[in-house]
Amino acid sequence: MLAKLRAAGAHDVIVHGHDLAAAGEHLRTQLLPRDPHGVYVPPFDHPDIWAGNGSVVHEVAAQLAERGEGRAPPDAVVCSVGGGGLLNGVCGALDAVGWSGGCSVLAMETRGTDSLAKALEAGELVALEEIGSEARSLGARRVSEETFRLAREEWRNVRSVVLDDREAAMGCWRLADDERLMVELACGVNVALCYDGRLEKAVGKKLTKESKVVIVLCGGNDVTVEKLHQWRKEYGDVEKEIPRNADVPSESTAPGRR
Questions:
Q1: Which of 10, 33, 44, 74 is positioned for an S-S bond with 85, CB 3.0–4.6 A?
Q2: Rounded to whole angstroms, how far apart are CA atoms 161 and 56?
Q3: Cβ contact 180:135 at 8 Å
Q4: Per-residue pLDDT tens for 87-125?
Q5: What is the DSSP letter of 137?
Q6: Beta bridge partner(s), residue 160
Q7: What are the transmembrane regions (predicted)?
Q8: Which helix (H) or strand (E) segment is 76 a member of?
Q9: Complete domains list, the chain, with CATH
Q10: 19 pLDDT above the threshold of 80
């Protein structure tokens, strides 16, 4: 990851702490006061970040309209949650296109980064003591206040789902097998629901070949071919528990798209 940042033009890359909270605190209290031209760009907790993330929903709405499929909402949107910037953007965009309430939102976390699930269970914002998952991209110890507010509005149909790292890794290698796409654990957790009928259970209704489910493939920076092989070697036994009932239909393999 550091090499990728430098290759993209980063002048200096400073690594501090074990999670986003520690790094952010160091940036705000130690680095910015010494840099009069410094600008803090939050990783998830800002309306501009949410708006950018929400553009994916507007793209989906435009594509469905171009195909003559009307303005009916998808059955569900599946997105992962770290600090909540993606979820906030998705919910805001669903409001904008008139899909809120008619479209379930599955808020995916890995066990050990499940700050939203813990907050919903407690009925208040809580901070994890530490990040206990390999999905470091989801490593926010507490979700934003806006995320917690949105997830608690029952009419939005936001459903919190927590899977472990083994299942997230399985989602990564199965997506690579089925669609030749490489994603990191923070994204693989979204794909993992698509096997063994678990997506239907999470959405809470019958899904057919005509159903529309949007799976946000949100990250591919922290993955390599070597990591995929390692995950499969380390976690391969999970496939005995979660059999492959069907391939994940994509743009190229979905019914009527070939």
A1: 44
A2: 21
A3: no
A4: 999 999 999 999 998 999 999 999 999 999 999 999 999
A5: G
A6: 107
A7: none
A8: strand 76-80
A9: 1-40 (no CATH), 45-236 (3.40.50.1100)
A10: no
Please, what sign has the CA dihedral across residues 179, 239, 120, 72? Answer: positive
**Residue that has been written with the tokens 């907050």 in this structure:** 119
The phi-psi region of residue 253 (left if phi > 0; otherwise alpha if psi is between -120 and 50; otherwise beta) is: alpha
Angle at CA of residue 48, ends 44 and 51, nearest 5°: 95
Euclidean distance between CA atoms 48 and 35, whole angstroms? 23
pTM: 0.85
- Do 89 and 54 contact (CB within 8 A), yes or no? yes
The helix/strand/coil state of 214 is: strand
What token pair was written down for 242? 């979660």
Please give the full DSSP string across 155-205, using - where no structure is assigned. GG-EEEEEE-HHHHHHHHHHHHHHH-----HHHHHHHGGGSTTHHHHHHTS
Tens digit of pLDDT for each residue in 151-191?
999 999 999 999 999 999 999 999 999 999 999 999 999 99
Strand partners, 79: 107
Rounded CA gap, 160 and 156, in Å?
12
Q: Quick one: tokens of 46?
A: 């800002």
Token reading at 139: 């490593």
**Alpha carbon distance 106, 160 (integer Å):** 6
Assess contact for 74 and 60: CB atoms under 8 A: yes
